[in-house]
Write a structure and sequence with these properties.
171 residues; mainly alpha; 0% strand
């Protein structure tokens, strides 16, 4: 029969392999990435999982600080790679297009063959399209800024001109 100790060792080996970085990720995370203890990897993944649940529950604002903490506290872990993906999702849900794009690009740089690489690339494409639909192309935005700036220079006391310029620059 199978011994209890044998089953426990098998379970530990399966758990450790599940927490390991995807192939090639350790080299992109920097020196020492493969030396990160199992406890640190588990803690990072726990925080990422909690954040993912917040995002899925429609609370991306609450997840962002936790995910940023993972990047700071556990930088050389697979959880930090996954945190970038979920930060991208959280920012995207809040219409933070530039921050979302940055996180998806970082995820894809660190884990081009990662389990969420296809979805990250698709989200990145969608962000680009949504941003262009909502705010126009970079050339059109430049033209809008120039027109708003000219209006403000012509009417510096006008609240409408001030708002138009602020809005154009904010995008």
């Amino acid at each position: 029969g199978t011994s209890i100790m044998g089953l426990m060792m098998l379970g530990a080996a399966i758990f450790a392999s599940a927490c390991a970085a995807p192939t090639g990720v350790a080299s992109r995370l920097g020196p020492g990435a493969s030396d990160v203890s199992l406890g640190v990897r588990v803690a990072a993944q726990r925080d990422v999982d909690q954040s993912r649940r917040l995002i899925e529950a429609g609370q991306p604002s609450e997840a962002i600080p936790q995910l940023q903490y993972v990047l700071t506290a556990y930088p050389a872990t697979p959880g930090a790679v996954e945190a970038r993906y979920w930060l991208g999702v959280a920012y995207q849900n809040l219409d933070g297009y530039q921050d979302a794009a940055t996180m998806f690009q970082e995820y894809l740089r660190l884990a081009p063959g990662g389990s969420r690489a296809g979805e990250a690339a698709a989200r990145l494409k969608r962000i680009s399209e949504e941003y262009a639909d909502r705010f126009g192309t970079p050339g059109a935005r430049g033209q809008e800024i120039a027109e708003a700036r000219a209006q403000f220079q012509a009417e510096p006391a006008s609240p409408q001109a001030m708002r138009r310029l602020a809005d154009a620059l904010w995008r």
